[in-house]
């Protein structure tokens, strides 16, 4: 085994060694399997905690640069120890509970949000054969687990017995439930093209090995990727969709009453969810761990970091949207466009088949994978441009109607004034 | 008797489901009741996992917890006096009898024991064919998908369910529709025009409001 192979498979080698050690200590059987699984889960949770610290530091530094500030620079060189300092501060803060809070619900909410955020990582493939559980319904699992954080936010908002918390919880329902729809609708084309809901299979379809074409889905489905990213930002409640905790309107929304480690758990949940969306985008549209030269896990982290940089960039530059804009944008723009896109991809993938054997069996025109990707790319672009055109046209018409209306009212008011003078 | 891990898990999940289901109907606090309902739904999803039906577990979580429970909780949060609300009615005896009757009938009809009433056999359902090929999770999902779209299986009920949901959605939108201020202004103007036409002694109609934005007024 060459050095490169060892480096590429280091996660698997270490994992197998630990599993072998446990099995030799406890004997083969259910007990050692459970212990190995607990260790794996612990490692993934540890990865999330470390990633959380790195992300808070990176976000504060990069958003500061975007907004022409310096950001944290006191703790350690370039402020790299800032997350540790924050952690110590969180630990030493007083843990308060409002007197009128619903104790059980209030105290459980941060735990629930952290647990649901971490559950997503059970199915994420970090490298070939380094995956918690290769479920054949991986995509569905991620979406299903994502709905748990909605419940946690509602528990926090209601349990705090605070009107701002409750307002934040109300906004959560409208936003998180609403944006789940375009998110699902844009995962669907990826599932249709890769023919599987397993995240491992979806990545394998985008690698060059095993007869797959090696075209990442972002080149085949750019519109789906865009809408997935937008609804992913909305699902994690990050700026510009941070209505559920809008500091300037409802103080901090659902977590206004939380302090100390409970607040830290909410913070962790938010960042772990943001990382999960970045990794899911990398897995679904950028080819996950597939890539040349570098080891697979590095590729996955690089791609996820790139997506997270886009999220930070948006957070640093865009103002918050209004509630009605949020709803109209979702239900009147993203959802119809997604439905048209799904139907179009469905038809085109049946007509222009990349696999010659499948084309011969089911009918359809056999084309090369590159040609199929080009056709899908163009159709996606056409859908996006025509949707934008319709919206622009509608906006112009609305402006004209408003101007006409205004003119009418002025004329009528002048008439009324003339009547009054005559009387 | 030594229990396997599956059996232990089954007992634990069954206890969670049953206890939280009882708490749903006994707790006075509506919000807590909704949360216990969520726990109960989670337990059912756990049963699906134990039965090796991951697809149904995910769908259970997505629909029953991600959609239905959240709507319940939302409705409860909009309810006044959640904690102090007294029981709305005193029909719990009748409700308990009906629930027990439905449970017994379902247990007989769906259970493995054969029950013969007047020569007709009820129950004795064979849920799986022990001699047939072992169904893996993937083949089950494939069969399910084909069953829902092929016309000699369940396409018609599936489409009927979809149409029902669509009708419900259209109805909800119609009930909750927002009446546009422009339409209301037009209605008011029409009513005012009628008044002027019928009776010239009517006082001057009130001024229609112009938008506050005086810049816009200047432009046009």
Concise synopsis of the structure shown:
The complex is a heterodimer of chains A (423) and B (220). Chain A is an all-alpha fold and 423 residues long.
Fold and architecture overview:
The complex is a heterodimer of chains A (423) and B (220). Chain A has two domains: 1-85, no CATH class; 93-352, no CATH class. Helix content of chain A is 73%, strand content 2%. Chain A is built from 17 helices and four strands. Chain A is globular, with a radius of gyration of 26 Å. Chain B is mainly alpha-helical and 220 residues long. Chain B folds into three domains: 1-83, NADH-ubiquinone/plastoquinone oxidoreductase chain 6, subunit NuoJ (Four Helix Bundle (Hemerythrin (Met), subunit A)); 93-126, no CATH class; 145-198, no CATH class. Chain B is built from eight helices and two strands, in the order ααααββαααα. The radius of gyration of chain B is 29 Å and the shape is extended. The termini of chain B are far apart. The chains are: A mainly alpha (423), B mainly alpha (220). Chain A binds chain B through residues 30, 102, 104-105, 135-137, 140-141, 143-148, 150-151, 154-155, 157-158, 166, 169-170, 173, 177, 180, 403, 405-407, 409-410, 412-413, 416, 419-420, 423, and chain B through 5, 29, 31-32, 35, 38, 54-55, 58-59, 61-62, 65-67, 69-70, 73-74, 77, 137-138, 141, 182, 189, 204-205, 207-208, 210-211, 216-217, 220.
Q: Mean pLDDT score of chain B, rounded?
A: 75
- What string, H for helix and E for strand, traces the elements of chain A in order? HHHHHEEHHHHHHHHHHEHEH
Unreliable runs of chain A, pLDDT <50, ≥5 residues? none
Residues in helices of chain B, as a percent range: 55-70%
Question: Measured on Cα atoms, how large is the radius of gyration of chain A?
Answer: 26 Å
Question: What is the count of β-strands of chain A?
Answer: 4
Output the structural class of chain A.
mainly alpha
> Biggest sheet of chain B: strands, sense, closure?
2 strands, antiparallel
Give the strand line-up of the largest sheet of chain B: 1-2
Question: Number of helical segments of chain B?
Answer: 8
Q: What's the total helix number of chain A?
A: 17
């Amino acid at each position: 085994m060459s050095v490169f192979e060892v480096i590429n498979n280091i996660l698997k080698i270490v994992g197998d060694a630990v599993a072998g050690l446990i099995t030799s200590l406890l004997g083969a059987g259910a007990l050692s399997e459970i212990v190995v699984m607990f260790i794996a889960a612990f490692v993934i949770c540890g990865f999330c905690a470390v990633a959380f610290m790195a992300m808070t530091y990176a976000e504060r530094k990069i958003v500061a640069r975007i907004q022409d500030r310096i950001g944290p620079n006191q703790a350690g060189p370039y402020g790299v120890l800032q997350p540790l300092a924050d952690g110590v501060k969180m630990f030493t803060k007083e843990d308060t509970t409002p007197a009128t809070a619903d104790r059980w619900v209030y105290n459980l909410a941060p735990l629930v949000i952290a647990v649901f955020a971490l559950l997503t990582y059970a199915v994420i493939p970090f490298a070939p054969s380094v995956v918690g559980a290769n479920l054949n319904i991986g995509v569905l699992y991620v979406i299903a687990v994502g709905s748990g954080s909605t419940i946690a936010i509602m528990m926090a908002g209601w349990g705090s017995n605070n009107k701002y918390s409750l307002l934040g919880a109300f906004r959560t329902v409208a936003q998180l439930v609403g944006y789940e729809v375009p998110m699902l609708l844009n995962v669907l084309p990826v599932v249709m093209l890769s023919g599987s809901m397993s995240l491992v299979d979806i990545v394998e379809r985008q690698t060059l090995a095993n007869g797959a074409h090696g075209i990442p889905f972002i080149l085949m489905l750019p519109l789906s990727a865009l809408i997935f990213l937008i609804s992913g930002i909305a699902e994690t409640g990050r700026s510009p969709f941070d209505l559920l905790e809008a500091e300037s309107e409802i103080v901090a929304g659902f977590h206004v009453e939380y302090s100390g480690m409970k607040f830290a758990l909410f913070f962790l949940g938010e960042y772990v969810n943001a990382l999960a969306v970045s990794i899911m985008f990398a897995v679904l549209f950028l080819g996950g761990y597939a890539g040349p030269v570098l080891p697979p896990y590095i590729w996955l982290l690089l791609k996820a970091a790139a997506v997270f940089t886009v999220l930070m960039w948006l957070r640093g530059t865009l103002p918050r949207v209004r509630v009605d804009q949020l709803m109209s944008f979702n239900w009147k723009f993203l959802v119809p466009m997604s439905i048209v896109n799904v139907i179009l991809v469905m038809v085109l993938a049946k007509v222009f088949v990349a696999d010659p054997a499948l084309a011969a069996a089911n009918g359809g025109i056999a084309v090369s994978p590159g040609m199929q990707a080009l056709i899908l790319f163009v159709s996606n672009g056409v859908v996006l441009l025509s949707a934008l055109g319709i919206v622009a046209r509608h906006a112009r018409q609305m402006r004209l109607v408003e101007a006409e209306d205004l003119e009418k009212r002025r004329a009528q008011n002048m008439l009324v004034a003339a009547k009054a003078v005559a009387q | 008797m030594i229990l396997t891990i599956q059996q232990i898990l089954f007992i634990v999940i069954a206890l969670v489901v049953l206890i939280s289901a009882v708490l749903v109907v006994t707790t006075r606090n509506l919000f807590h009741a909704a949360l216990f309902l969520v726990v109960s739904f989670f337990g059912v999803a756990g049963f699906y996992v134990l039965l090796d039906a991951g697809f149904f577990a995910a769908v259970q979580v997505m629909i029953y917890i991600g959609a239905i429970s959240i709507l319940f909780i939302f409705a409860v949060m909009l309810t006044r006096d959640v904690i102090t609300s007294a029981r709305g009615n005193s029909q719990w005896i009748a409700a308990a009898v009906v629930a027990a009757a439905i449970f017994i009938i379902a247990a007989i009809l769906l259970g493995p024991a054969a029950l013969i009433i007047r020569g007709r056999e009820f129950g004795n359902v064979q849920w799986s064919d022990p001699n047939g090929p072992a169904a893996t999770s993937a083949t089950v999902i494939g069969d399910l998908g084909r069953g829902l779209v092929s016309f000699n299986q369940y396409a018609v009920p599936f489409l009927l369910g979809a149409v029902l949901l669509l009708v419900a959605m259209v109805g909800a939108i119609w009930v909750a529709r927002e009446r546009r201020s422009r339409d209301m202004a037009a209605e008011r103007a029409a009513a005012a025009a009628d008044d002027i036409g019928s009776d010239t002694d009517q006082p001057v109609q009130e001024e229609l409001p112009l938008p506050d934005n005086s810049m816009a007024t200047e432009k046009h």
